[in-house]
Design a protein that fits this description.
Helix content is about 45%, strand content about 15%. The protein is an alpha/beta fold and about 375 residues long.
Length: about 375
């Protein structure tokens, strides 16, 4: 009898060990991939990292977040203290810049394969409701109105209450962040159109004057868009009145603003605006074939319907056409957020080319 019990216990032990081998990665077989993303994806990727690791216990995902332009500069100049496996800047054009700069110094493509779209959004403006109503009484954002407000610098002179104090606009640092670059690009386009100038007019005195005005008005611009909106909410009216951010972050953090400030902000769609597609690339430098396979699994995972719905919950528009903005669980488009629209009647432009952005950054650096 005791012999039979011992044999039974031994069999159970073997079964348990076999199950352990099945579900616990063997030492040396587990892969770790380092995913560097723009800060706009911090919340959804943090959620999806845990879900992915639960479904793929043999792969660990280490997330790091940087401003999108910083991400490109840090990788090309090898300034990180870690080796990235995947880069996900706010738009694919930045990966094109990275590729051009990399191939100017190296003979190989920096990526293992063509970059893959993950989620998309667009540039919008936000304003505290009372301030927005005073500045844009017809509920339509206007660059020229914003410029006039910066020139005057005081609410009492532009239709606001005397106790509102100075007018404060916020955008990100265009030398480090994609949304700051897009803000200046759209503003410059509007200025050129209003003065009937061609694109060569970027070097005109009017554009230089505009950039100088904005740079003097925006004190210590944040390095990334999510940081900007969190500061916008914390500072509140009188210290931050209007800001340009991504629609995704504006939708996702609206509840935080309403709870923290006791009042919501209003979303304003720019017309035209610029659509940005967060795009992922698996890089070559110091990345093994095992890490490449693991990274492919992660990127494929992110584009499946269930994961795309998580991006929608965080205010992003899906790249998977099977996902419906209205039907996605906890969609911000079903929460009556002031100004939010599923299909805004506006012109949507692609991001500007690298040459234009390089000139915008140069003009910003020279502005005073």
């Amino acid at each position: 009898m005791q012999h039979l019990q011992r044999r039974t216990l031994t069999s159970i032990g073997v079964l348990v060990a076999a199950l352990g081998i099945t579900y616990t990665p063997l030492p040396g077989l587990q892969q770790t991939i380092v995913v560097v993303s723009g800060t706009e994806l911090r919340e959804p990727l943090t959620v999806l990292e845990k879900r992915f690791e639960r479904d793929h216990p043999d792969i660990q995902v280490e997330l790091k977040f940087q401003g999108s332009q910083d991400m490109v500069n840090n990788y090309v100049d090898d300034r990180n203290d870690f080796d990235p496996t995947v880069l996900i800047p706010a738009n694919g054009q930045l990966l094109g810049e990275l590729r051009d700069r990399w191939q100017a110094q190296n003979d190989v493509d920096p990526f293992y394969e063509e970059p893959q779209a993950i989620a998309k959004t667009m540039l919008v403006a936000v304003a505290w409701t009372e301030r927005g109503n005073a500045l844009f009484p017809n509920a339509r954002f206007q660059w020229r109105t914003l410029e006039q407000a910066l020139q005057v610098g005081n609410w009492s002179a532009i239709g606001g209450a005397n106790n509102w104090g100075s007018f404060d606009f916020v955008t990100t640092d265009p030398t480090r962040s994609n949304s700051g670059q897009l803000t200046l690009s759209l503003w410059a386009q509007d200025q050129l159109a209003s003065k009937s100038l061609t694109s060569a007019g970027l070097n005109s005195a009017d554009i230089q004057s505009l950039f100088g005005l904005v740079k003097r008005s925006v004190y210590q611009p944040p390095r990334s868009t999510d940081i900007l909106l969190q500061e916008f909410i914390t500072r509140g009216p009188n210290d931050a009145d209007v800001a340009t951010v991504y629609e995704s972050i504006a939708l996702y953090r609206w509840g935080q603003a309403s709870a923290t400030r006791g009042e919501p902000y209003q979303i304003y769609y720019l017309d035209p605006t610029i659509e940005t597609i967060s795009t992922a690339a698996i890089v070559r430098r110091q990345v093994s074939q095992g890490e490449v396979k693991a990274a492919r699994k992660f990127l494929d995972f992110l584009t499946k319907s269930d994961q795309q719905s998580v991006f929608v919950q965080h205010g992003f528009r899906p790249v998977n056409p099977a996902v419906d903005l209205r039907a996605a669980p906890n969609s911000p488009w079903s929460q009556n957020i002031p100004g939010a629209m599923i299909t805004p009647q506006i012109a949507i432009l692609p991001p500007p080319d690298r040459q234009t952005l390089t000139e915008i950054i140069r003009l910003w650096q020279r502005a005073n």
